[in-house]
Specification:
about 230 residues, globular, membrane, mainly alpha
Amino acid sequence: VKSEGPKLVPFFKATCVYFVLWLPTSSPSWFSALIKCLPIFCLWVFLLAHGINFLVSHRSASRILAGLIFSALGDAFLIWQEQGYFIHGLLMFAITHILYSSAFGMKPLDLKAGLLMGVVSSSCYAFLYSYLSGPFTYLVAVYIALIGFMGWRAVAGVQLCNDLWTWTKLSACVGAMLFMVSDLTIALNKFCFPVPYSRFIIMATYYAAQMLIALSAVETRDEEDFRKRS
């Protein structure tokens, strides 16, 4: 983590720029879209800085990079969500969760973690259901299922009881949980009731989630290289 820290400096600076400028969401523009997406662009560069060969030879890292690309598209669409592009953003982030799930893999399976995430996801949808109408009744259900699945695959990788966990997997797990908090806050604020400081909560947890997931991809390289040397 220490060796990767300096490479994340542009991300931290871009995140600070977003929160310092705090551009009003009531006036969407390409400039505001750029400022919002800039931290994610920095995470692209963060992964690309490790080399194309690294991304090609490590499928999990390349899938996380692809997820970050779709995330930036989703961020851009959500800038204009009041103009009818919310569903477009939802679709981009749905693809992101599929890519992240694929990057985290299906081993270990950990059905207990899957059951727990299923209960959490179902409870969230049950609460939101009465506030939903039209196509959102189905779209939100699918989206919650996808992010719940992504959360399951991230949590399943952290085997604390068996001492099989790594910083890589813990980083992915915490990132996935923060992503779920961010998206749940969006859903509550959009469909149910105004959430105090919603924008700050959404963006702070979102940027932290993306950073941790990107960091987990780089640490994966170190783990695999260690296994090869062993």
